[in-house]
Amino acid sequence: MLKHELRKKYKNLRTEVSPEQVLDLSLVLANSLLQIPIWDFFYYHIFLSIEEKSEVDTLPIITLLQGKDKNVVVPKVAGNISMENYLLTDNTSLKKSAWGVPEPMDGIEIPENKIDVVFVPLLAFDSLGNRVGYGKGFYDTLLNKCKKEIVKIGLSFFTVEDEPISDVNENDVRLDYCVTPEKVYAF
Length: 187
Fold this sequence. Notes:
Blueprint: H1 3-15, H2 19-32, E1 43-46, H3 59-67, E2 71-77, E3 83-87, E4 94-96, E5 102-104, E6 117-120, E7 124-125, E8 131-132, H4 138-145, E9 151-155, E10 177-179, E11 184-186
Parallel strand pairs: 1-2, 1-6, 6-9, 9-10
Antiparallel strand pairs: 2-3, 4-5, 7-8, 10-11
């Protein structure tokens, strides 16, 4: 299936997820992360959710990471398709971008080569670990700048797509895991 078809399908499916379901399913996803061997790392990059798009609420994951004394890093759009990464602290001020994404206003910048784990937003994924995002390329750009051994984890309310994504290109970065309410997929 083509990316643009999957984007349309999953954007529509997300509109059917109530705010209560988003919270309940997001808690299940956070608890499921305990099954993945990622807890010996230091820097965890995580997106901040766009509530209006019924994205996975990453606050339970952030709370879990902070409870384990991990360094949480959040993105800020810095250019055409690039992002800067800032340490999330108690003093971090957030402001919604033009796209509705909460972003840090300033703070301690963390270089890509320090990041150990990235929680990747997505709309759909296939059994090979390919993902469909919103189509701008921000996360593929970030992941291509990170060290090769970085752990890439997708978060989805929906199960794996039966058909492979047919228009994957050389800049697309595959996931190592994808966590859904029913299962943790390893690729």
